[in-house]
From TrEMBL:
InterPro entries: PFD_alpha_archaea, Prefoldin, Prefoldin_subunit_alpha. One of its GO terms (biological process) is RNA polymerase II core complex assembly. The lineage of its organism: Eukaryota, Metazoa, Ecdysozoa, Arthropoda, Hexapoda. Belongs to the prefoldin subunit alpha family. One of its GO terms (cellular component) is prefoldin complex. This is Prefoldin subunit 5. Pfam families: Prefoldin. GO terms for molecular function: unfolded protein binding. Residues 13-40 form a coiled coil. CDD domains: Prefoldin_5. It comes from the Eukaryota.
Length: 161
């Protein structure tokens, strides 16, 4: 059982023992990972905004809007006139081509839960991003120390020559 516990431990590497080339490669890998994380976060922020916008739209519905004329989007830039006939039945796109019919309160609850879920994912990924940024900063610090040491060594060699 002790061997499985040891296998789950992350391997620790002393950055000072790595060559400058290895450190630069690690730095590049962390920069790529952080860039991917930032793209993922931006996607999640956009998704959260869509869900929040849908929930906000549902919050604005008024019972007296029954039979009210509205513009129904056919594309992002083309609309047709329509009328609200049923204020308590909404069709919600739940992804991958599936739609669910819900009443007003059920629809609000759905979007509330989606916003909360996406926010939880954002928080998890932000923690990972912070950790990766700390690692990157540590690598950059060691690179700078090694470069400084190399410059000092070259200066000493030039002075002794």
């Amino acid at each position: 059982m002790a061997s499985s516990e040891g296998a789950n431990k992350p391997e620790q590497i002393n950055l000072a023992n790595l060559s400058l080339e290895q450190l630069v490669q690690i730095k590049q890998e962390f920069e790529q990972e952080i860039s991917g994380i930032q793209e993922s976060l931006q996607t999640l922020y956009n998704c959260k905004a869509k869900y929040a916008s849908s929930k906000e739209a549902l919050e604005s519905f008024q019972p007296e809007w029954n039979d009210r004329q509205v513009l129904v989007p056919l594309t992002s830039s083309m609309y047709v006139p329509g009328r609200i006939k049923d204020m308590d039945n909404f069709v919600i796109d739940v992804g991958t081509g599936y739609y669910v019919e819900k009443n007003l309160e059920g629809s609000k609850d759905y979007f509330k839960r989606r916003v909360e879920f996406v926010q939880e994912q954002i928080e998890k990924i932000e923690k990972i991003q912070i950790q990766k940024s700390r690692f990157l900063n540590a690598v950059i610090g060691v690179i700078e120390l090694k470069q400084l040491a190399a410059v000092k060594q070259m200066q000493q060699q030039q002075q002794s020559a």
